[in-house]
Structure to design on (461 residues):
């Protein structure tokens, strides 16, 4: 028998089992340190503000891109589960030509031809298959819909993570630049002290020890300047990595590190705001709802499934000589003798639900802890900024006085050396405290789920 069959573009058959797509893994904190490079490096340095850096990060940061792919995967899984609730329709067009050898079929009839045919027929048909009542598929679809909503919320939360990551990298480069400028100023001051000590030694008014001490201080600061410049270049590379800039592209930061103290903050009100706005918390609520529907789906696997199958088409020797035929079937299926499999699926779904509930409870506590941690860091950093600022002024006055005393021959340059070290320490503490204050404010914006308004936090509002 020879046959030919042509299948037309119909819908997916209901009887086909469509495995849901494997969802991409959610981005980790490390992923937000990377990006997809965009554009080519230019010979001229570009100006980069904090707003520009964050906007670039929102477009090219690896964490944002992976969040988008996770959302796309969740959308695909939802569509796959939706198909199980809808009727599947297939279309087939079949043209058959046959010739039968009766002896080969075991038929030997005296006086009857051994070969029958050739003969054939044409069959054009549409078939429908639909699970009319399938509670397991319904709950699986509802779970997929919750997972899709959770992926969308996670993608929104990723924007706050980009803000925090890029903002932290930008502020770190600003702190490095301030450190480099401070150390360069200290090197210049140490060079003046070295020249003065060398001149005094040549004139016989100061011992060689003063010159050696000044030279050691000067060279130590030169080494510190080299290390600080190296840290600056590395942190600029890290910033470029988070925002998709070509690593060969040079750039200049146009913003400065602001400082504006916060007024008294109401921790309780901020915690309520965070719980209402945090997208990662809302995403976990959706994931818990998905786990609850998956638990219901596992239970519904025991319930009967009502299905309907039907087909209608024309069949005949040709389309011009054909007749319509129809076939319809309704079925009821109930799982029997599958107790261990069904019980295992139910227990697995329950374990996943219990895990989701525990993680949701922990996330609520984590949101509150994030807000309280940020407020503590802000309060501490603001006090450190004020103390460090005073220390910078006092150490500067002490250095000036020590230099004048040494120039007038009242004392040796040991006091100058000690005063220079105090200035260096005070400058470093001020830069660090200012950096910590601004990062704590960005962390508060992230903790409140208000990353898009990060500017008002840096402004102390």
């Amino acid at each position: 028998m020879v046959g030919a069959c042509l299948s037309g573009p119909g819908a997916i058959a209901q009887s086909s089992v469509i495995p849901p797509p494997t969802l991409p893994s959610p981005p980790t904190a490390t992923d937000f340190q990377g990006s997809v490079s965009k554009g080519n490096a230019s010979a001229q340095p570009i100006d980069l503000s904090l707003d520009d850096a964050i906007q670039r990060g929102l477009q090219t940061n690896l964490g944002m891109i992976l969040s988008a792919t996770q959302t796309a995967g969740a959308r695909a899984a939802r569509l796959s589960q939706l198909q199980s609730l809808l009727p599947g329709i297939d279309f087939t067009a079949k043209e058959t030509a046959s010739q039968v050898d009766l002896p080969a079929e075991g038929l030997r009839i005296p006086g009857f031809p051994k070969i029958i045919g050739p003969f054939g027929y044409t069959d054009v048909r549409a078939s429908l298959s639909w699970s009319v009542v399938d509670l397991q598929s319904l709950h699986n679809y509802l779970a997929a819909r919750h997972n899709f909503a959770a992926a969308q919320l996670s993608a929104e939360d990723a924007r706050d993570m980009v803000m925090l990551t890029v903002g932290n990298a930008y502020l770190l480069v600003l702190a490095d630049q301030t450190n480099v400028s401070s150390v360069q100023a200290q090197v210049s001051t140490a060079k003046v002290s070295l020249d003065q000590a060398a001149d005094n030694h040549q004139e016989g008014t100061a011992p060689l020890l003063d010159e050696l001490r000044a030279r050691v201080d000067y060279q130590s600061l030169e080494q510190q300047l080299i290390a600080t410049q190296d840290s600056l270049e590395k942190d600029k590379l890290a910033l470029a990595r988070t925002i998709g800039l070509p690593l060969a592209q040079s750039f200049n930061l146009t913003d400065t590190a602001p400082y504006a103290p916060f007024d008294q903050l109401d921790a309780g009100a901020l915690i309520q705001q965070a719980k209402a706005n945090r997208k990662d918390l809302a995403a976990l609520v959706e994931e818990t709802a998905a786990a609850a529907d998956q638990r219901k789906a596992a239970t519904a696997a025991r319930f009967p499934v009502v299905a309907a199958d039907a087909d209608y088409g024309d069949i005949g020797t040709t389309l011009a000589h054909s007749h319509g035929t129809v076939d319809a079937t309704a079925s009821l299926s109930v799982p029997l003798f599958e107790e261990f499999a069904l019980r295992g699926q139910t227990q697995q779904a329950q374990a996943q639900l219990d895990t989701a509930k525990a993680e949701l409870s922990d996330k609520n506590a984590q949101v509150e802890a994030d807000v309280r941690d940020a407020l503590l860091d802000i309060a501490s950093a603001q006090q450190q900024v004020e103390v460090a600022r005073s220390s910078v002024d006092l150490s500067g006055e002490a250095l000036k006085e020590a230099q004048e005393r040494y120039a007038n021959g009242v004392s040796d340059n040991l006091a100058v050396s000690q005063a220079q070290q105090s200035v260096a320490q005070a400058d470093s503490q001020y830069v660090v405290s200012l950096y910590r204050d601004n990062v704590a404010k960005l962390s508060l914006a992230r903790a409140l789920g208000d990353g898009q308004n990060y500017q008002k936090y840096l402004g102390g509002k």
Q: What stands out?
A: The chain is about 60% helix and 15% strand. The longest strand covers residues 115-133.
